[in-house]
Amino acid sequence: MNTKDQLEEIRTGKQDLSSYIRICCDLLEAENPHVHAIVETTYDRDRIEADVARLIERFPDPTSRPALFGLPIGVKDIIRVDGLPTKCGSRLPDNLFSGPEADCVTRMKRAGAIVIAKTVTTEFAAFQPGPTCNPHRFTHTPGGSSSGSAAAVSKGFFPFGFGTQTIGSIARPAAFCGVVGFKPSWSRIATGGVVEYSRTMDHVGWLCNDTSALSQLAGVLIANWNPAPRIQNPNDVVIGIPEGPYLEQASNPELQRFSDLVARLQGHHLTIRSCPALQNIEQMRQEHLQLVNGELARVHHDWYARYSHDYAAKTAELIETGQHISDKELRNLIRNRSVHQQQVEQTMDHYQLDYWIAPGAVDLAPEGLDSTGDPIMSLPWTHTGLPTVSIPARSTFSDLPHGIQLVGRFGKDEQLVEMASEIAKRLHHSIPETT
After folding, report:
1. What is the pLDDT of residue 431?
2. pLDDT of residue 234
3. Alpha carbon distance 160, 150 (integer Å)
4. Is 76 a catalytic residue?
5. At residue 275, does pLDDT exceed 60?
6. Active-site residue (options: 109, 118, 145, 146)
7. Which alpha helices (H) appear in 188-275, and where do they start and end?
8. What is the DSSP string of 133-196?
9. Any catalytic annotation for residue 87?
């Protein structure tokens, strides 16, 4: 059953909410010791059952229940939730990160969602991995930094997990764990109540089971959401493949998998064509890393001065690199970001493209838990603030998932989620790969 249908059954009372939550909790308690996706100090079954009872008592009449009544969710542990600690995957005192609940969490609660637990993040959403394993093969990374949310959704602990993306932290774990990831256009979901990495680049989004409820969820989280009408003729849509140095950074096996997926979609009469793009990807990569490191250093200025010995070496290196970036350089980097965004959209205009399509990651999830993988396939879309939906693909060649990213125009998230649903249907009904 897809997420949209599940929500409807719970809201109308066809499925008993208490029983459903018990199933989620039973599964979490049985499987989390293997996958390590949950911040254990934030999981309390008695608290969850009490929240469920209060929700049912508050909305006894199914006709008055809010849109997300009974939806169990996980919250990445850089996002504040009232009553739960925020630790940011760090050894620093968690009282440093206390403050008002994140607006995005409050919106979900008001719509009837139930917070199950916090999910594991890399340290401060950077590159030092947490303990989470890939749910498909425990010796491989789940990606970063929204690793806990991706793994937990993949294992069925809950159908929705908050994530954030500053480089590739929603799209990459979505591809590695075989789930859907949505990164809206920059600033469409408020970041208030989220411990910052980079004010200029942080995006709040989520990971979920499927594309069926993307618009419904966005309607809760995005204040000015205006659902797009269903696409009447997807075959009239033009999708571009960004050929050139960006795409060439994917491994040869991944490029073959991507080519197979494109062929499957073209077999459904979708118009997909190659277009030269992102020729300046190396400049964009360097400027992006300078910008986020510079802003990270400023966020951590006081904390690092006092607790530098408690930071992981990878995080400390980023902060110390960022300390050497001047305010003037930061301003120039922020200004250049707008230039890069305009260049990408001008390319789309020139080739009359509605969307881009790209691999979800450079390859399958690499073996080992010391690294979260390369985020370069997501970096240009984060840097330019364009919305993306990561869509997993069925495959028989490996037990490790892979997938694609569908990229929309800035601010055109409503149209993107509709097209992503069409793409997902076509991939689901296609014959699986045998590579």
Report:
1. 41
2. 87
3. 9
4. yes
5. yes
6. 145
7. 214-221, 252-266
8. -BTTBTTB---SSSHHHHHHHHHTS-SEEEEEESSSTTHHHHHHHT-EEEEPSTTSS--TTB--
9. no
